[in-house]
Amino acid sequence: MRLPKIFAGLVFLLSVATIANAQNIYVDYDHHVSFSTYKTFMWISKPHYHPDPVMDGRIVDAINSTLMSKGLQLVPEGGDIGVAVHVATRERHTLETFYTGFGGGWHWHFGTGFGTAFTTAEPYEVGTIVVDLFDTRTKEIIWRGVASDSLSEKPEKDTKKLEKAIDKLFRRFPPE
Asked: What pTM was estimated for this model as a whole?
């Protein structure tokens, strides 16, 4: 009887962890714009990621290589498209609860019985990347991509998360 409860608890924890680590991607664009007319792009606002400034260059490189793979050419000025990237962070909290009880020590406690619960709030940063593309002639936004939960407080994981987020953002770019 105890084994099914433990198994159910592990399945629940894994599903919550999977949902918590999923990136949320949002893309919108001006449906009246013909993206096939754009041939070049330039930077008008580069990212500033305060927790890890080294990521700024990685974000720029990832977007550059993605846009170039889509057929656009990077130019220092006078591009058809202006790229502006913003990185926002916010602090969130996760609650961790451990139970003490029968036999001492700590363990996950399923069911009822004697014991004490200890819950702590653990803060962590969630990074959101916002990519805006502007028509430099009209100065109007033509495309926006937002990737939330794309950067964390762990630089060793951020590069892979960043690459995945940029790939997802530009998967269907240019829009048809």
From this structure: 0.68
SS3 101: strand
Res. 57 pLDDT band, cuts 50 70 90: very high
- Give me the number of domains the chain comprises: 1
Position 57 in a domain:
yes
Listed range (11-25, 42-56, 64-78) with the worst mean pLDDT: 11-25
Q: What is the CA radius of gyration of the chain?
A: 22
Token reading at 84: 């502006």
Query: Does residue 83 come out as left (phi exceeding 0), alpha (psi in the -120 to 50 range) or beta?
Result: beta
Residue 14 belongs to some domain of the structure: no
The answer to whether 171 and 28 have CB atoms below 8 angstroms apart is no
CATH number, domain with residue 142: 3.30.160.670
Domain that holds residue 37: 23-102+113-169
Q: Mention every residue, 6+ apart, whose C-beta is less than 8 A from residue 13.
A: none
